[in-house]
Amino acid sequence: MQQFTSRLQLPGWAVVVAAAAVVAPLAAQNPSAGQMAEQYAQNAQANAKLMHQYTWQMRVSLTYKGNAETPELYQMNWAPDGTLQKTLISAPPEEKKERGVRKHVEESDIASLKAYLDSLVDLTKRYATPSPGTMMNFYSAAVTTPAPNGGVAATESGFLQSGDKVTFTLDPSTHQATSFTFSTTLEGDAVSGTVIYGSVPGGPNYASQTSVSVPNKQIALVLENFNFVKQ
Amino acid sequence: MTDSAPKAMKASVRVFSTVLATALLCAPGLAMAQAPNAGAMAEKYAAESRANAQLMRQYTWQMRVAVTYKDKPEAPALYQMNWAPDGTLQKTLLSAPHKESGRGIRGRIKKGKIEDFEKWLGELADLVKKYMAPTPGTMMDFYSKATFSSSPDGTVAVSAPGFIQPGDRATFFVDPKTNKPQRFTFTTALDGDPVTGTVAYGQVTGGPQYAEQVTAAVPAKEVTAVVNNFNFVKQ
Questions:
Q1: B176 and chain A in contact, CB less than 8 A
Q2: Do A132 and B144 touch (CB under 8 A)?
Q3: Where are the domains of chain A?
Q4: CA distances from A181 to A54, A127, A167, A194 (A)
Q5: Among residues A3, A14, A8, A22, which one has the least CA distance to residue A130?
Q6: Is B136 on the interface with A (CB under 8 A)?
Q7: Residues near B33 by beta carbon (within 8 Å), at least 6 away in sequence
Q8: Regarding beta strands A54-64 and A219-230, do their DSSP bridges make them parallel or antiparallel, or are they unpaired?
Q9: Which residues, given as ranges, of chain A have pLDDT below 70?
Q10: Which CA distances in Å does B193 have to A87, A227, B20, B124, B221?
Q11: A34 contact partners, CB below 8 Å, separation of at least 6
Q12: What span, in angstroms and rounded, lies between the C-alpha atoms of B73 and B225?
């Protein structure tokens, strides 16, 4: 993993943890879409502030062509300037050219795969961290249906790009999103993603697990955030 | 335009006329009055756009679509624009149909490449459409990050990056007296090629505001499309 993932450098994943989309306004008492989006923005800002009080760990796992690479574990901290820093704390795997992802990817192809993964990360970030305006459109057009677990599913097509589809599943008692799924495309490849939200008691909401898969490319990425500690 | 007209030319006119048909309904409504927040401003934008669209339905007008490819302007197409009883916008060609020949855009595009060109034109039209008809949510994000500056012509330039896609920029030039946009410009990219767009807004006296002229240019492809709307008549 080290020989591949560390070379790929997926800094964008660090940001995804802040994607604790607070969709609470959706179930509020008939506010307008603009008001709901404003509330979403305020909630997101407040949640981000809370997040800055914590450190946590992040695990990144990549499966490529059916082979699961050794996950990488990072310690996540906030630098004094407010930027999020990640430090690898898992043991770096030995450099073995004939094993791991590199076994399946020619050296010359690594650059193109890296570019693709970067695009995939950027795409996932856009879905996991929607702008208030995107949420305003969502609030205007979303269709709600009962979810199997007693929650409410709010679904919209054309969330970020035509042809995509997203669904927030909400806890009816807290109005918080418990999960978020999206289906979209990247360079013509079908992409599906799922975000499971967690909540630190007395602290922020966060994306506890984000999974993205691109079947055509036989790529599956899983990002987990845990061990939140207040500073 | 007849069935025997150059395919690429037909496509270029078709896609841009379709773009404008939608854009006309969405062009105005950029009220820049002081509002409590971006969400409220976006709500106001949505309400004004709806009101303008209702006004627009009381009118017929004409639309001219002109495409220039490799510095050679094609014969423009003139359409009569009417609302069908079911509320859909209909366009009827008024200008004389082009004759089939090896000249024109088709004559300058290698056989086999015409479909690619048509597809690309469609993508360009879709892109322009996104800028011409921003959603309330897009406007909310725009209001949230826009910067204001004075323009030499007395308008206030309201500008922000990341309007529709990363790397782009949109600028509304707003009349400070009416709070209505006089023109709108955008810079963006399509398949890596820079695209520039300009919209000049017009105002029907006592009627709707509309996109009087829309220009989209892709220098790398040597393509420029200009759409004009005029002769508004209340029904």
A1: no
A2: yes
A3: 2-230
A4: 26, 9, 5, 4
A5: A22
A6: yes
A7: B44, B179
A8: antiparallel
A9: 1-30, 92-108
A10: 38, 46, 22, 11, 8
A11: A136, B37, B38, B39, B40, B41, B42, B43, B46, B136, B140
A12: 9
pLDDT in tens, B38-47: 888 899 899 9
Return the H-helix or E-strand segment holding B21: helix B7-26
Q: Does B38 touch chain A (CB under 8 A)?
A: yes
Give the tens place of pLDDT for each residue, B180-233: 899 999 999 999 999 999 999 999 999 999 999 999 999 999 999 999 999 999
Out of B39, B138, B139, the one facing A38 most closely (by C-beta) is B39
Determine the 3-state secondary structure of A216 from DSSP. helix
Task: Provide the residue type at A57 as one letter.
Answer: Q
Chain B CA closest to residue A131:
B141
The ranges assigned to domains in chain B are: 7-234
Model pTM score: 0.80
Long-range contacts of A148-153 (CB under 8 A, 24+ apart): A149/A178, A151/A178, A152/A27
ipTM over 0.90: no
